[in-house]
Amino acid sequence: MIQLLFLVLFAEGTVALFLMLKIGPLRELVMKGLDQLKSSGKGPATVKTIACTMSVIFLSSVTSILKIQNKGVKLGTLTPMDQVLWRTHLLEASLLGYILFLVYVIDRLHEYLRKLIGLRSKVGASEQEVEKLQKENLRLKDKSSEEIRSLKEEISNLTENLKKLQLESQEKEKQVIAAEDRVVALQKQSEDLLLEYDRLLDQTLQGQTVNYRG
Known about the structure:
Elements: H1 2-20, H2 26-39, H3 43-75, H4 80-213
Helix pairs in contact: 1-2, 1-4, 3-4
């Protein structure tokens, strides 16, 4: 019985050590084994049954230790047989206590490591998503820069065209003003010519009148 308890304790200590320290692929193998044990239909029930049996044996050993101690208190001393039984029960109770404690430690380590692996997976996925968003942001920035550059060039072209149109408009205004000045000059010249024509016509009519009288 004691040799079996030592063997179980050694096995549990080895499992706990592999869970706490990452030694090659051993942690992954232990995690997979515990996952299969917990996920299988009879695994958790079997573990609980063994744990309950060990707990009963542990309580029985503690009870035997207390009985032997009470017997020694009443008699004032312990017989050699009682001393051997007391030490045997004490060793069994100690081994069972350590075994039950390591079962709890292994269960908690497995849960924490599984949560840690899940968190690392989520963090890795989040990092990939962040990297993807950064690349998309950089692509949009490049695209925006190109569009802004294109818009600036278009605005520059429009500004140059507007300046050309303004210059053409100013030239046309100058031409219109010059044409208006020519029209005014022609009108004045026409009026002068009409006046001269009227004056010459009057002189001609007066000369004809004088000749007729003579």
